[in-house]
Amino acid sequence: MSTSLSTSGSASSGRPPIADAGPLALCAREPRVPAERLVAEMVPPPRFDSVRFDTYDPDPDQPSQTEAVSVLSGFAAGLGGAHASGAAKRRWFSKKPTASTGPRGVYLDGGYGVGKTHLLASLWHATPAEPALKAFGTFVELTNLVGALGFQQTVQTLGGHRLLCIDEFELDDPGDTVLVSSLLRRLVEQGVALAATSNTLPGKLGEGRFAAADFLREIQGLSAHFRPLRIDGQDYRHRGLPEAPAPYSDEQVTKAAYATPGASLDDFPGLLEHLAKVHPSRYGALTDGIAAVCLTDVGPVPDQSTALRLVVLADRLYDREIPVLASGVPFDRLFSEEMLNGGYRKKYFRAISRLTALARDAKPLVSQ
């Protein structure tokens, strides 16, 4: 994979560089990602590389969180028996799917920031199988993998796995939902255990029950393979923590970009235009080697297609723990009321939550 590390040029007059070299520019990068990298990177992202069940901090006021740890620990231990590939080999002779003795999947149902991804990654780590036999990725990354490899090759690639974890399962695109449901059906037939999460809107009465019902209905024919596991609680990213800092000035952001080794500096409208030229499956590679993302002139996103691309970038930045320093409008004003009340609202709320957390992480860059 070749990733351009071109920078965006010198600073404007009157604003001399603070470091020996100017910051990088995401807009100058056009990464090319081979399919084998997509497969190799199906592991918990850096933010969740070291998490385990015993590092999860349950809210004492939410017993469902403690229960989730217990249930998932038992689920992981139960995957230590016969390997999935063994079931697949037996079917070469019987030509019949292996009968299931119970749910081979779990669906983590809850709102934003209750630790579902932490628990999902902990399940991946706790499952007794070598990393090459476990896969972890977002719903978008899984659809990108099918696009890169083709459906049959994806089935062959993942069919020998013991566990597939799908984070942020999305139900708002009927075509992708049918595609992934078909893929999961084939993988279940080969003995692969499944685990999935998705988000529900904060503050909605009965949010978890409705989300679970939607999920089980949309994965047609697979509902019997999933046990819904409810996780209550408030967004831990804002629990007992200060509010995210207000946006800074263009001058502060630019100065911090030049002072921070490995930082990128981009004009927000220009970055949005550039994202339209890069396939979302490459957004992770777009951030390779970036220590911090600095954005000037942040403003409301103009349309839904642009907004959805920004959501994917926000996910990749959050996964990689890359701070985001910005000038312009606050991140909770990126999306219009129409967007926040529309069919993709779950994605937009997730992006706001994650960008807010990354903005908080970037605060020390201004004071250095």
Structural class: alpha/beta
Identify the strand order in the major beta sheet: 2-3-4-1-5
| H/E topology pattern | HHHEHEHHEHEHEHEHHEHEHH
What's the average pLDDT?
82
Give the terminus-to-terminus CA distance: 34 Å
Low-pLDDT stretches are: 1-19, 83-100, 201-210
If helices are DSSP runs of H or I spanning 4 or more residues, what is the number of helices?
A: 14
Shape call = globular
What's the number of extended β-strand segments? 8
Strand fraction equals 5-15%
Radius of gyration: 21 Å
Give the biggest sheet.
5 strands, parallel
Helical percentage:
40-55%
Task: Walk me through what this model shows.
With 368 residues, the protein is α/β, with parallel strands linked by helices. Helices cover 42% and strands 12% of the residues. It contains 14 helices and 8 strands. It has a 5-stranded parallel β-sheet, with helices on both faces. Strands 6-7-8 form a 3-stranded parallel β-sheet. α2 packs parallel to α4 and α5 packs across α6. The longest helix is centred in the C-terminal third of the chain and has 23 residues. The N terminus is likely disordered.
